[in-house]
Amino acid sequence: MDNPMSSALDSDYPRRGNAFSRSLARGFLRLAGWRVTNPMPAVPKAVIIGGPHTSNWDGIYTLAAMMQLGLDAHVMIKDSAFKGPFGAMLRWMGALPIARHKAGGVVEQTVEQFNSRDKLVMVVAPEGTRGGATQWKTGFYRIAQKAGVPIVVATADYRKKEITFARVIEPCGDVEKDLAEIFECYAAIHPRHPDKLSAPLKAIRDKKKSAGRQTPNA
């Protein structure tokens, strides 16, 4: 599916920040040698998934990219973290409380957040760890499907030093089919630590390399 880039205000992604914060983020990325090559699509609601996740820097560069774009994105954090003086700061940073032991779990509570708002973008790291996960967690997919929102695939390429919002995927209900399409988006992306790639992304990269070696010269 092509990225919907409608300029209508009611279909634009939720925004935050100002010219100063956007310039600050742009300056940070420029000093680091990074750039945003494909902007966030104009959708009012979405689940953003980021990868490959092999370093803490992945999140830093991606957050800077979202700040440069003025994107108001949120993450779900356990509700106990909001107790005390850090609660207000977490909310300001875009964190939303989640009660892990509540009936329905994280998925249902996140869907409730989508259903109660006109605009909402949630960021999820499906690999769950930067240490070479054996499989992806599919909670992000169930959230997107139940909330009726698209999945935006974000990539961080360390060879090109580019942050890209590569694809918009509407969940079709066949998780394996959609995951295959998502994994394909990361096939040519170079992580900071290739040896820490999650198993699904390593498999798709190895498959691409093998196919390239078997292709005869023209």
The total tally of domains equals 1
Q: Strand-residue fraction?
A: 15-25%
Taking the alpha carbons of the first and last residues, their distance comes to 32 Å
Query: Which segments are poorly predicted (pLDDT under 50) over 5 or more consecutive residues?
Result: 1-10
The whole-number mean of residue pLDDT values reads 84
Largest sheet: 7 strands, mixed
- Strand order in the sheet with the most strands: 1-7-6-2-5-3-4
Helical content stands at 25-40%
Q: Determine the structural class based on helices, strands and strand pairing.
A: alpha/beta
Structure description:
There is one protein chain. This protein is 37% helix and 19% strand. It has one domain (9-214). α1 packs across α2 (56-68) and α4 (105-115) runs parallel beside α5. Mean pLDDT is 84; it is low at 1-10. It has a seven-stranded mixed beta sheet with strand order 1-7-6-2-5-3-4, with helices on both faces. It contains seven helices and seven strands, in the order αββαβαβαβαββαα. It has helices spanning 19-32, 56-68, 86-92, 105-115, 139-147, 175-185, 199-214; strands spanning 35-38, 45-51, 73-78, 95-98, 120-124, 151-157, 162-169. The protein has 218 residues and is an alpha/beta fold.
Briefly say what this structure is.
With 218 residues, the chain is an alpha/beta fold. It contains seven helices and seven strands, in the order αββαβαβαβαββαα.
